Amino acid sequence: MDTITLLQPDDWHAHLRDGEALRRTVPDLAKQFHRAICMPNLVPPVKTVEEAIAYRQRILAHVPNGIDFDPRMVLYFTDHTPAEEVVKIKQSDAVNAIKLYPAGATTNSENGVSDIRKVYPVIEQLEEHQVPLLLHGEVTHSHVDIFDREKRYLDEVLVPLLRQFPQLKIVLEHITTADAANFVLEQGRNVAATITPQHLLFNRNHMLVGGIKPHFYCLPILKRQTHQTTLLEVATSGNPKFFLGTDSAPHAQSKKEQACGCAGCYSAPNAIELYAQAFEQMGKLDKLEGFASHFGADFYGLARNTKTITLVRQSIQVPAQLDYLDNDPIIPLYAGQTLNWSLQ
Ligand SMILES: [Zn+2]
């Protein structure tokens, strides 16, 4: 087998940033994916349907000619999001979900929700209108160890949340632990998860053994190998609860390689090839299309794509760096390493 043809995939979790960054991020994503869920953690965050539509226009302005790219927008959930905004999301043809960052959890999350119980009236509306709630699933208390934050979130936040709102549609974003994978498996069809390429291909040893590698630093942080193994198993299992979400999160080289480096891996340029690499390691390339191209659209209630892409068995080297901001390049995930499959 030297080629794989897939229905065109979608990326259900991506950070495109804004302004000058869009020159890099939009073409990188749009050359593979038809749709992407565009995360709203800009400065200031995208909090209303109107702001989301304006951001979508700024993204579309950077789509290369001849490429059909459909940004799907998400609102940023704050302590002050009005319950009425949920109906506006439901009626909008550009916005598909709302993203909840616990305040302080990751890049630009200081406007996030301080206590989820405070926003239960909005969540009630999400459940009623079946608008997906996208969760960054980590507690943020300073006394909780960074490697335990996802597990604690399941116990302390998600279990009570689903008890209160059993029909709520939830995507647990970028899961990193066997605990989260098993939690999702135990829930009804209304609970799903995205998985990033870095959490399938790497574990914390890659980041910390033999010198610290800041380009593997992302949040939620890479975990131990046993968790990586479980993520590989569920991603390649053909279970529709798990689908593609790169969490591609660009930060310029100077923001990553410093005493206090930013969290995020830039996987967009070779995202589908990175996933192919992981699926091939498991001998499960036949399961890639469901994960990348079917299950996310089905969960969101959107039509599956109709065009296809083809991957060829031809090794390519990921560039050591790419142009990003003026005089400040970006180092992509897998920089300098060889991928077995390449996008035709
Ligand atoms: Zn993210």
TrEMBL record:
<dbReference type="GO" id="GO:0004151">
    <property type="term" value="F:dihydroorotase activity"/>
</dbReference>
<feature type="binding site">
    <location>
        <position position="15"/>
    </location>
    <ligand>
        <name>Zn(2+) 1</name>
    </ligand>
</feature>
<dbReference type="InterPro" id="IPR004721">
    <property type="entry name" value="DHOdimr"/>
</dbReference>
<feature type="binding site">
    <location>
        <position position="13"/>
    </location>
    <ligand>
        <name>Zn(2+) 1</name>
    </ligand>
</feature>
<comment type="similarity">
    <text>Belongs to the metallo-dependent hydrolases superfamily. DHOase family. Class II DHOase subfamily.</text>
</comment>
<keyword id="KW-0479">Metal-binding</keyword>
<dbReference type="GO" id="GO:0006207">
    <property type="term" value="P:'de novo' pyrimidine nucleobase biosynthetic process"/>
</dbReference>
<dbReference type="InterPro" id="IPR002195">
    <property type="entry name" value="Dihydroorotase_CS"/>
</dbReference>
<feature type="binding site">
    <location>
        <position position="41"/>
    </location>
    <ligand>
        <name>substrate</name>
    </ligand>
</feature>
<comment type="function">
    <text>Catalyzes the reversible cyclization of carbamoyl aspartate to dihydroorotate.</text>
</comment>
<dbReference type="GO" id="GO:0008270">
    <property type="term" value="F:zinc ion binding"/>
</dbReference>
<comment type="pathway">
    <text>Pyrimidine metabolism; UMP biosynthesis via de novo pathway; (S)-dihydroorotate from bicarbonate: step 3/3.</text>
</comment>
<feature type="binding site" description="via carbamate group">
    <location>
        <position position="99"/>
    </location>
    <ligand>
        <name>Zn(2+) 2</name>
    </ligand>
</feature>
<feature type="binding site">
    <location>
        <position position="251"/>
    </location>
    <ligand>
        <name>substrate</name>
    </ligand>
</feature>
<dbReference type="InterPro" id="IPR032466">
    <property type="entry name" value="Metal_Hydrolase"/>
</dbReference>
<feature type="binding site">
    <location>
        <position position="174"/>
    </location>
    <ligand>
        <name>Zn(2+) 2</name>
    </ligand>
</feature>
<keyword id="KW-0665">Pyrimidine biosynthesis</keyword>
<feature type="binding site">
    <location>
        <position position="136"/>
    </location>
    <ligand>
        <name>substrate</name>
    </ligand>
</feature>
<feature type="domain" description="Amidohydrolase-related">
    <location>
        <begin position="11"/>
        <end position="306"/>
    </location>
</feature>
<dbReference type="Pfam" id="PF01979">
    <property type="entry name" value="Amidohydro_1"/>
</dbReference>
<protein>
    <recommendedName>
        <fullName>Dihydroorotase</fullName>
        <ecNumber>3.5.2.3</ecNumber>
    </recommendedName>
</protein>
<feature type="modified residue" description="N6-carboxylysine">
    <location>
        <position position="99"/>
    </location>
</feature>
<comment type="subunit">
    <text>Homodimer.</text>
</comment>
<dbReference type="GO" id="GO:0005829">
    <property type="term" value="C:cytosol"/>
</dbReference>
<feature type="binding site">
    <location>
        <begin position="15"/>
        <end position="17"/>
    </location>
    <ligand>
        <name>substrate</name>
    </ligand>
</feature>
<dbReference type="InterPro" id="IPR006680">
    <property type="entry name" value="Amidohydro-rel"/>
</dbReference>
<feature type="binding site">
    <location>
        <position position="263"/>
    </location>
    <ligand>
        <name>substrate</name>
    </ligand>
</feature>
<keyword id="KW-0378">Hydrolase</keyword>
<dbReference type="GO" id="GO:0044205">
    <property type="term" value="P:'de novo' UMP biosynthetic process"/>
</dbReference>
<feature type="active site">
    <location>
        <position position="247"/>
    </location>
</feature>
<feature type="binding site">
    <location>
        <position position="219"/>
    </location>
    <ligand>
        <name>substrate</name>
    </ligand>
</feature>
<feature type="binding site">
    <location>
        <position position="247"/>
    </location>
    <ligand>
        <name>Zn(2+) 1</name>
    </ligand>
</feature>
<feature type="binding site" description="via carbamate group">
    <location>
        <position position="99"/>
    </location>
    <ligand>
        <name>Zn(2+) 1</name>
    </ligand>
</feature>
<feature type="binding site">
    <location>
        <position position="136"/>
    </location>
    <ligand>
        <name>Zn(2+) 2</name>
    </ligand>
</feature>
<keyword id="KW-0862">Zinc</keyword>
